[in-house]
Amino acid sequence: MLTETHPQPRLLALITHCLRPGGVALVAAKSFYFGVGGSVSDFAAAAAQHTLRVDTVAQLRDGASNVREIIRLTTRGGSG
């Protein structure tokens, strides 16, 4: 479980505060952060609780390193 000392809640609060209706925020990250905890799916679940719509834009796989993902966050009902 993430706490307020973890950066995810603060990042989501910032995105939620700054995102206008219909606006779009793109977030690029490793799918998993080994040793520090957290994942894109954890972040997406937390974003959904902040009433943001989450869509996966891309998954980047090079076969040699951790998978990277780009997700799109929009306000629910927004056309982004």
Structure description:
- The chain has 80 residues and is α+β, with helices and mostly antiparallel strands.
- It has one domain (7-75).
- Helix content is 28%, strand content 30%.
- It is built from two helices and three strands.
- The chain has helices spanning 7-18, 40-49, and strands at 24-30, 52-60, 68-75.
Short description:
With 80 residues, this protein is an alpha+beta fold.
Order of helices and strands: HEHEE
Distance between the first and last residues' Cα: 30 Å
Q: How is the largest sheet built, in terms of strand order? A: 1-3-2
Extended strand count: 3
Low-confidence stretches: none
Oligomer: single chain
- Let me know the average pLDDT: 82
Main beta-sheet annotation: 3 strands, antiparallel
- Shape, per Cα inertia axes: globular
Structural class: alpha+beta
Report the portion of residues in β strands: 25-35%
Q: Rg to the nearest angstrom?
A: 13 Å
Helix content: 25-40%
How many separate domains? 1
Q: How many separate helices? A: 2
